[in-house]
Design brief:
The protein is α/β, with parallel strands linked by helices. It is built from 4 helices and 4 strands. A hairpin with a 4-residue loop joins β1 and β2. It is globular, with a radius of gyration of 12 Å.
């Protein structure tokens, strides 16, 4: 499965924007973790994950997002998921992650 991660720091908005494309599973979740951690270490601020073009995420990918959420929240920042597809939104709802991660 393939994953494309495009991140940029929005200095004006003081936040990271990540566009996740493809699928996140056990074979590539470490890439996501590494890029999110590196970005956050460079500019510790809010992180927005745009999932509009993410087709699939497994428990390993969710674990990465939860781990990053815990670190960022501990520093007083937010992790926000925007534009999740219905299948991803359903998974977030089942795990109750939609209550803390999806932007209104």
């Amino acid at each position: 499965m393939s994953l494309s991660i495009k991140g940029n720091y929005d200095a004006a908005g003081s936040r990271w924007n990540f566009d996740l494309v493809g699928e996140i599973d056990i074979s590539n979740a470490h890439q996501l973790k590494q890029q999110l951690e590196t970005a956050y270490a460079t500019h510790p601020t809010d992180v927005y994950l745009d999932l509009e073009r993410l087709n699939y995420i497994d428990s390993t990918g969710l674990g990465v997002i939860i781990g990053v959420y815990g670190t960022i929240r501990g520093d007083g920042h937010k992790t926000i998921i925007v534009n999740p597809k219905d299948n991803v939104k359903k998974l977030l709802r089942i795990t109750s992650l939609d209550k803390v991660l999806i932007a209104e």
